[in-house]
Amino acid sequence: MKSILFLSTYPFSKPRHGGQIRLHQLVKKFERNGWTTRSIAVYEQESYLGDELGAYDVPFPVDSKYRMYKGKYVPLINDLLTGQFAISEDDGLDKIIANLPPQIDIIHVEQCWLWPLVGKIKSLPKYKNVIVVFGSQNIEYILKDEILEQYHVNDRDDVIQDIKALELKAVLEADIVAAVTECDVEFMREWHRREIKLAANGIEPWESNILTDKWEKRLPKAPWLLYIASAHPPNFTSFNKIIGESLACIPPDSKLVIAGSVCEHIYKEVLKSKWASINMSRLEFLYVLDDADLAEVKNRAYAYFLPIEHGGGSNLKTAEALYSGKPIIGTISSFRGFEKYSDSPRVNVIRTPEEFFEVTRKVLSNPQPVLEQQERVNLENLTWDKTLDKLYSDVQNYYEASVNA
């Protein structure tokens, strides 16, 4: 039986944020094709509990000495620090090794953070010939630099250089490297790795005719906007800048409805604006919803809003918005990885707060564009089954070639 091990810094038994969803879909792809899978997440102990955890996941304790970076505390870099904890012979490594399956043909490392662990696993005689796949989600050192700058972490040069070195090592040493956007593919090719696979982000189709009294009563009767996102900083740190600090362009009987763990962060951002009172009257926070409720909210939305100014990789919620067939208002960055869809009449790319005002009024007052049959057919290419197909085939072929060598 073919066996693949997935390594990550977050569990995904209950996938919510983009990284969890992507990894969940990767595992499903291999399982559907006859592979035995095992997943080990080395996760922040304080961030996940109970049924969020997998059977073989290993906690990175809050009080671990490896929470320090070169003897000092640096915020927002636990992902980097997890790699050092994972290879520590006095702490994490033994726990991880104890959870390894007896046979591993392939190791898939999602993001670069646990790359040091790969070497430790391959140093064990029975795993020395495993094939290693590096799955990149962003150019991590650039994204981390942007995040730390926004949080005013000034003494970060060493951190960024260490992340860049780790990322470069993963790109050059892996047997197969996959990226989520063509832009990231081209970027990593500059690191003298010519063959980079594209494995774009996608969507899981949802039941499109779910409609209940519960949400009919709660949501606006007039056309309204929907924004769904996780608590990943690029999903909220530029919100006020993008809207020009005001949501007054949304009619009083309408709303910008927000769902997901981004809600509490948008709430705090909105309170910073001098127009906080008006803005709060135009917002409806739904917080984290279960899949059935979220599916109905998506079905009832009149249009989608994607206020992403920076970040790396691509946004899963852009794929969802496109697949919905509804009008979309979004920044240039929000369509990163989905540029070929941006010429659709449903897509409205905004560059300034003035454009946000103008486009929002237009979208909420005009009829929804008709979704042509050919566009609907093209949107099927956004499903995970299609976006991960080439990566799966390449891994399968590499494995078969190694067996037959």
Automatic annotation (TrEMBL):
Protein's UniProt keywords contain Phosphoprotein: no
GO MF annotations in UniProt: glycosyltransferase activity
Domain of life: Bacteria
UniProt keyword annotation of Plastid present: no
Record keywords, A-Z: Transferase
Signal peptide feature range: none
Record-level GO BP terms: lipopolysaccharide biosynthetic process
Protein name, per record: Glycosyltransferase involved in cell wall bisynthesis
Organism: Candidatus Pantoea floridensis
